[in-house]
Structure prediction request, 530 residues.
Amino acid sequence: MIRINNISLPLDYDDGDLIKYAAQALKISESSIKSAGLFKRSVDARKKNNVHFEAAIDIEVFKNEDRIARRSSKAKITEPYSYELKSSGKLEKRPVIIGCGPCGLFAGLILAQAGQEPLIIEQGKDVDRRTADVDVFRSRGLLDESSNIQFGEGGAGTFSDGKLNTGTKDKRIRKVLSEFTAHGAPEDIMYLAKPHIGTDILRNVVKNIRNDIISCGGEVIFDARLSDIEEKNGRICAVSYTAGNTVNRIETDNVILAIGHSARNTFEMLRSKGIAMQQKAFSMGVRIEHLQENINKQQYGDFYDHPRLKAADYKLAVHTKSGRGVYTFCMCPGGCVVAAASEKGRLVTNGMSEYARDMINANSAVLVGIDTDDFGSDDALAGIRLQRELEERAFSFGGENYHAPVQRVGEFLSRTSSAGFGSVIPSYRPGVEKTDLNRLLPGFMADSLREGLLLMDSRLKGFADEDAVLTAVESRSSSPVRILRNEKMQSVSMEGLYPCGEGAGYAGGIMSAAVDGIKAAEMILEMTQK
Prediction:
């Protein structure tokens, strides 16, 4: 197979034209090419008068592959990706996975495909019941602390945007993408440079993965919280979980700890058991909302309403005069800001888009870097305490009913307030409360955000538009804790315990978490080959 990179395609190209463009790039006849398909496609909008697609195309030729590939510096011989499971026998005791987010799901899928019959324990509910609980919270402000946007089947990413773009270069990315499509995700995620599934589709995808795990002999238990771990001679030998009023104990030699970054009760239990962990820098901030049409115009110019261009996104990062970083994260085109609390009396926001990304507003987190020096304590869990303090302030400023505190950007920058909104209407439910975010946020965060917004506006005109809306507080972007592990991905404190994914501090999104889960499963499968 020949891969040809850096091929420019007009916005109105047809899939049937790929052979033509490949033939032109290699200066060969179209009849020499057996087949052609997209490997990668992105939007090139650097010149607003020439917005087009930039693509990599994979082709098969009838003969002389090596000679043809040498005709262009853009071309190279490549082999189709395949994933090989390496398992030579069955483990004596079934492996246990704690958490059913992308890390836990993909660890479970690999182990199930290898015939190891994994057991997944999730403190939240299955995705259907979870969706109902999320809807109740958004409409009525009634929070279920074990079933919400943070906890439940699929993890926090299920109620975001299903963004699959990542800086991870690991070859297992193709395995993750192919499994997503095999379980119901759109096929375009295989080639889009910034793929996404959308919350509406992702719910069914994670359910299909769970059912596949079960069909391969695995088991998934919901409404079950990890309550204890036991070790013998330095190796994990059993776990206990609480379901209702019943404590259940399972003997096992291998436990993948795929907890999310909001599993605060589990962090506390692990620390009480002497599991080594340390503070980790993270970020907090707010959500910003603009009219999606304005973002499209800034990014695509005169092509902003072209039918082949989807809702535009952005990614911005700046440094303030103090050296503190401010950046956008989890940008959700054509989406809404959602209520993401998981603890009573504390308010958290996140962003969400469905596959169509057709809502009127765009939203993104705007985050300020929080260094461990800001924690004010050497306690490994001091970052969690910092999160909770800010979440409690947001809850208070919002009226103590899970309404979110909001402010127009113009008012935030000028440190004024008013009763109304301009062109951008906040999308957060169950409701919002106009307030002064300069009083809510710690001084260094408010100062950094004001400076950062203006710096970002110099890179994306209109970013600091006075009518844009800020919603507080975004506090769960990443884990403030890292559970220490060795080169075999096992806890430095307990052999057979594999801290993985976002909660353990080793991933930063759906894809990197899924890959980390696959790698942990592979480490366990290596034992069957000895």
In short: The first strand starts at residue 2 and ends at 9. The mean pLDDT is 95.
